């Protein structure tokens, strides 16, 4: 099982995932263990998937081939459509067809110095690009939790539009930590996060955040929770100053 989130930012892209991989005999889940779920291609492309691991491997291979063949130079819509078409052809070769595709993916990449985030929907694998009007997405078993929590974060922090990479990373970490804490099973830590951002030479590059960077964002999440606890104390009424009504028994 997997939970993944993607956030289009004004200065890049953030993609996060949990670390849980569940084994199954086809009917029942057998064991659960930790695994890397985010892959970087040539320091330019971020891939994260949810669903069958074998299908993720096949999709990753198709993306790598497209990158090696220099197909990431045209319009993003044309590229997304081509990747979806090639993947569906590959899946159908082993009898897997919409709407029964047990796999979905997020893909972050650059074209002509512009960053993009594309969602390939589970079950149908149709591409959808995130935009300035709808810039975040979550997928996987914990989607009912992560969708609503991202909506909460948008209402509080993102009312003015796209977040920065720093704010998007904070949101991804908080969302995934929340999902790990309250889900009913199949989602576990540690949180993994990759970002696509401009490097010192002004080129878009992808990398996976290290433990220290993730630790800073996790601490920021704890600070935000503590601030909310303090607000509760500030907002709470002082019952000792309330005047009780006089009741006449006559």
The global form is globular
Instruction: Let me know the largest β-sheet.
Output: 5 strands, antiparallel
For the secondary structure, the number of strands is 12
Helical fraction equals: 25-40%
Distance between the termini: 67 Å
How are the strands of the largest sheet arranged? 10-1-2-11-12
How many helices? The count is 5
CATH topology: Glutamine Phosphoribosylpyrophosphate, subunit 1, domain 1
Which CATH top level class fits?
Alpha Beta
Structural class: alpha+beta
| String of helices and strands | EEEEEEHHEEEEHHEEH
CATH superfamily (homologous) name: Aminohydrolase, N-terminal nucleophile (Ntn) domain
Mean pLDDT value: 89
Give unreliable regions as ranges. Answer: none
Number of domains: 1
CATH architecture descriptor name: 4-Layer Sandwich
Gyration radius from CA atoms, angstroms? 21 Å
Strand content: 25-35%
């Amino acid at each position: 099982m997997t939970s993944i989130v993607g956030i289009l930012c004004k200065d890049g892209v953030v993609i996060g995932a949990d670390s849980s991989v569940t084994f199954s005999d086809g009917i029942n889940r057998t064991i659960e263990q930790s695994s890397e779920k985010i892959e970087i291609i040539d320091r330019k492309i971020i891939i994260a998937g949810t669903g069958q691991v074998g299908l993720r491997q096949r999709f990753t291979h198709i993306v790598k081939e497209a990158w090696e063949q220099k197909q990431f130079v045209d319009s993003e819509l044309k590229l997304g459509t081509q990747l979806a078409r090639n993947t569906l052809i590959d899946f159908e070769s082993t009898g897997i067809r919409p709407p029964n595709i047990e796999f979905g993916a997020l893909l972050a990449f650059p074209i002509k110095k512009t960053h993009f985030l594309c969602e390939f929907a589970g079950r149908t694998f149709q591409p959808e690009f995130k935009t300035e009007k709808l810039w975040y997405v979550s997928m996987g078993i914990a989607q009912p939790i992560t969708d609503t929590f991202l909506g909460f974060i948008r209402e509080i922090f993102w009312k003015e539009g796209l977040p920065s990479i720093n704010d998007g990373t904070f949101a991804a970490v908080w969302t995934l930590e929340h999902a790990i804490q309250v889900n009913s099973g199949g989602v576990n830590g540690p949180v993994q996060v990759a970002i696509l951002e401009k490097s010192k030479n002004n080129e878009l590059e992808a990398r996976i955040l290290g433990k220290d960077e993730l630790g800073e964002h996790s601490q920021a999440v704890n600070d935000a929770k503590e601030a909310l606890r303090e607000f509760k104390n500030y907002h709470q009424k002082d019952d000792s100053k309330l005047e009780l009504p006089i009741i006449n028994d006559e």
